[in-house]
Amino acid sequence: MKTENYFMRMVQQTPTEFWINNPTREQADLAISHDASGCTNNPSYSQKMVDHPTEGTYAGKILDNTIREVESEEEAVAEFQRRLVKPIAEKFMSIFQNSAGKRGFVSIQGDPIHEEDPDVIIREALENRKLSPNICCKIPTTYAGLQAMEYLVSQDVPLNATEIFAIRQAVVLCETYQRASRKHGKTPQLYISHIAGIYDDYLQNVVSNDGVEISPDVLWQAGLAVARKLYQIMEERHYPGIFVAGGARGLHHFTEMVGGKVCCTINWEGTADQLIAQNPPVVFRLFNPVPQKVIDELIEKLPDFKRGYLEDGLEIEEFENFGPVQLFRSSFIKSWKRVLDSIRERQKTL
């Protein structure tokens, strides 16, 4: 009989689900044994596996085989990612099958360098979708990404809309999905990933770089304040999709979202393992109100919080260049290019 830890009790006592982010094969197994019901992988995944102390040799062999079999460098890095994700997807297939396709999805997000081109996004998504029935295509919620997702709905492709920091992004996404669904008669699974932790990183950088005087206690609540408001909007308007709390940079980005119908995704090392070790009480925290004075101070002192918090804070054409979107994407591009550099170096010796 399994000893019930934090995640197991959370799943039993709340509608909140536990997802694992960018796992090694061993971490995927550990997460599943602790009742994880899903998995996300972003464009940094391949580089992390190549650099991983125990997974690096395994990943390196896959990379070398990919280089031998795929001529184009750009296609090789995408194919390498697929080959790494496929065994992870296989581990979650029993959850997918036992839930009649409601859980057990594994998200994959591809090339971040060309994500301003909807045709590239669509082509990669359709290729990634071939990996396994439980593959969910993770697409940035930008102008190009919205165009791609509208088409992918028509093809009944499960979606994880990511890089969401602003209320406006999520609202436009939900309305785009509804429009495409009505037009084509398709209702593929939709996840809506709000990235509170990266938003907090971005705002903390602004505070530090610009010398903004703001209470650390107020700043700590910024990303979660947007997440709470977005969840409320989705519930009140009966928008499609399941809320995903992503981009955790602290344990609070997970624990503060517990209580709602939310998939909380978190890394295993340094976060999930810490929650298991600390074994805190399971408490419904998502519905805790954010004091108006906190919102007022954030809006007054941080224009990019205001742009994210207010429903009319951004225009669709501004999504891609929104500060936290750029921060998140830049980390992906850096990792993707590192794998491209590894491919070029390995090609010399193969």
What does this protein look like?
This protein has 350 residues and is an alpha/beta fold. The protein has a single domain, classed as Aldolase class I (TIM Barrel, Alpha-Beta Barrel), CATH 3.20.20. It has 16 helices and 8 strands. It has helices spanning 6-13, 25-33, 45-51, 56-69, 73-98, 118-129, 143-154, 167-184, 196-210, 216-219, 222-237, 252-255, 268-278, 292-301, 303-309, 323-347, and strands at 17-21, 36-41, 106-108, 135-140, 159-164, 190-195, 242-246, 262-267. An 8-stranded parallel beta barrel has the order 1-2-3-4-5-6-7-8, surrounded by 10 helices. Helix 5 packs across helix 16. The N and C termini lie far apart (49 Å).
Keywords:
single chain; 350 residues; alpha/beta; TIM Barrel; 8-stranded parallel beta barrel; 16 helices; 8 strands; 12% strand
Question: Can you give me a brief rundown of this structure?
Answer:
By secondary structure, the protein is of the alpha/beta class. The chain contains 16 helices and 8 strands. It has a single domain (6-347), classed as Aldolase class I (TIM Barrel, Alpha-Beta Barrel).
Question: What is the element layout, followed by pairings?
Answer:
Blueprint: H1 6-13, E1 17-21, H2 25-33, E2 36-41, H3 45-51, H4 56-69, H5 73-98, E3 106-108, H6 118-129, E4 135-140, H7 143-154, E5 159-164, H8 167-184, E6 190-195, H9 196-210, H10 216-219, H11 222-237, E7 242-246, H12 252-255, E8 262-267, H13 268-278, H14 292-301, H15 303-309, H16 323-347
Parallel strand pairs: 1-2, 1-8, 2-3, 3-4, 4-5, 5-6, 6-7, 7-8
